[in-house]
């Protein structure tokens, strides 16, 4: 059986607005060249052996990966923005953010069944559901998924998952979706800070700058509405949601490490089971205390609830398993692109005012998010690129100084046509 080398780690490319808290990241694996390959033979050569500029080509595999990358970006962008807008629309008829959180989280149970269907369709060596389940349970230790492991390694993440989702959805009731989606992007900065402090990750100056930009963006976003209590509460809820999500990811990496595709799917399904068994009582209590009350079950917009859950499930699947067909950075770009999508929708459906402070805050947070996407070796790559450009410029200058020669040999050489093209 072909085993996947990709593993799940705490989400570093950002996050689902509501549900996604883990992300698949690939270990070292064979991949195509990160850039177009240079032609080995020069495009043209003269009698002195000088070569013209190299020819850049793109292989079929690279084109395929780029195509899948574009598809993943569009899917991430549309599912994230769509789920956020649909949640806002749902609250006009069904003002129950915690119940909506509970309902959508129950759909996590489908992760492992969907993964097993893909395993049966793609794997050469078929395994029964029980065999695959037992193999994935090794992620929790030699004894598998015991009752103790369930309450010590799964239940805490279920609580953090629910808090993250609820705080985010509750914030949508207070402020517009543009502010909520862009502020939640600060989650990545919080993950870096916690990883640096708790996990002793490598210090990177550019990521410190990104974290400062994220904090500055939060302050400016609060100032954009004049520090009104309504907007301040909403922004505080979003920041709390991003903080819970960051804590989830850092603890996941600290306690569980990384997981393969099947192990990730099983873990997310276990969170759905935990939600059904232990969180169901909370919406019931909220209903009878009339904190989240609806007069009749016929008044519940089931279409909106199911549509919201399907969009989030789609977003989770693409973000967790999209690494199999493209690069993680492209999926993060899809998250960033959903911010302007939400802004356009808000412009035509709400009374949002895009003043100078709000626009600058959005740009600052977006810039900080993109800086956090830089790989750890970005400075080494930049130095190599600048060195290559400097060497090439010197070669072109040397060639330009040698071409104007006026001797008879140079004249005959220039008159002689080249057939190397």
UniProtKB/TrEMBL annotation:
One GO cellular-component annotation of the UniProt record comes to: membrane
Where the record annotates domain EamA, the positions are 68-222
Biased-composition ranges, Low complexity, are 34-49
The question of whether NADP is a record keyword is answered with: no
Q: Please give the start and end residues of each transmembrane region.
A: 66-87, 99-118, 139-161, 181-199, 206-224, 230-252, 264-288, 325-345, 357-374
Q: Which UniProt keywords apply?
A: Membrane, Transmembrane, Transmembrane helix
Q: Where is this region: Disordered?
A: 25-53, 393-421
Annotated signal peptide = none
Which GO BP terms sit in this record?
thiamine transport
| Entry superkingdom | Eukaryota
Q: Where is the composition biased (Basic residues)?
A: 411-421
Query: Sorted alphabetically, which PANTHER family does this protein's record hold?
Result: SOLUTE CARRIER FAMILY 35 MEMBER F3, SUGAR PHOSPHATE TRANSPORTER DOMAIN-CONTAINING PROTEIN
Entry protein name: Solute carrier family 35 member F3
Q: Which organism is it from?
A: Mustela putorius furo (European domestic ferret)
Q: List the top taxonomic levels of the source.
A: Eukaryota, Metazoa, Chordata, Craniata, Vertebrata
What gene is this protein translated from? SLC35F3
